[in-house]
Amino acid sequence: GAGVSQSPSNKVTEKGKDVELRCDPISGHTALYWYRQSLGQGLEFLIYFQGNSAPDKSGLPSDRFSAERTGGSVSTLTIQRTQQEDSAVYLCASSLEGSSRLPNTGELFFGEGSRLTVL
Amino acid sequence: GEDVEQSLFLSVREGDSSVINCTYTDSSSTYLYWYKQEPGAGLQLLTYIFSNMDMKQDQRLTVLLNKKDKHLSLRIADTQTGDSAIYFCAERGKGRRALTFGSGTRLQVQP
Questions:
Q1: Could you read off the pLDDT of B17-66 as tens digits, one per residue?
Q2: Would the CB atoms of B4 and A108 count as touching at under 8 Å?
Q3: How many C-alpha atoms does A17 have within 13 Å on its Cβ side?
Q4: B111 vs B1, which has greater pLDDT?
Q5: Is A112 in Cβ contact with B42 (below 8 Å)?
Q6: Shortest CA gap B78–chain A (Å)
Q7: Pairing state of beta strands B9-13 and B105-110?
Q8: How far apart (Å, rounded) are the C-alpha atoms in residues B38 and B44?
Q9: To 5 degrees, how large is the angle CA A36–CA A39–CA A44?
């Protein structure tokens, strides 16, 4: 598609349930990022995928959070046994990192986010 | 770890200039960015500056970088109501791929 697509746009769940959030990056973008935006907070880095390299999981807040990227394209962020403090907007971004054809300015292209509310 | 700080709120009148400030701690920052987030939308890149530059101008936007003080600013000339949004400062450190973002400055433009 033309931009980064995320689904669902809104998700309300009960505490203790698992949720899956999906991100479809811009076609051809090799790098994919997940960030979390909590009310009044900045963007908190969660995880980064680049091509076939091992992902950078250094931002995942706990082992309840995991993410995978299948076939170097679509990514799924999974939160197990959700807690109320997991309520936030989860933003996905992709970039052309690694391309030798363009200057590597590191510009990230963001989706509109998935708003998660844990009751 | 790396940190990026911004003031939370700025209110200006339409037609005035807006200046949004940002400080960061990572001395190895290579690129610094300003992103804009309109209500209900994702972040969009407004402009960026490479760390060996002091200033960058792009139409109504002027970015100033003081690398010694680790201070970045975004000036918007002739601010319009359509400029009302949250502005995020971000930096990329050398060898790091993930950007570190500030908490965002909410710009309110009053008619």
A1: 999 999 999 888 888 999 999 988 889 999 999 989 999 999 999 999 99
A2: no
A3: 12
A4: B111
A5: yes
A6: 26
A7: parallel
A8: 9
A9: 25
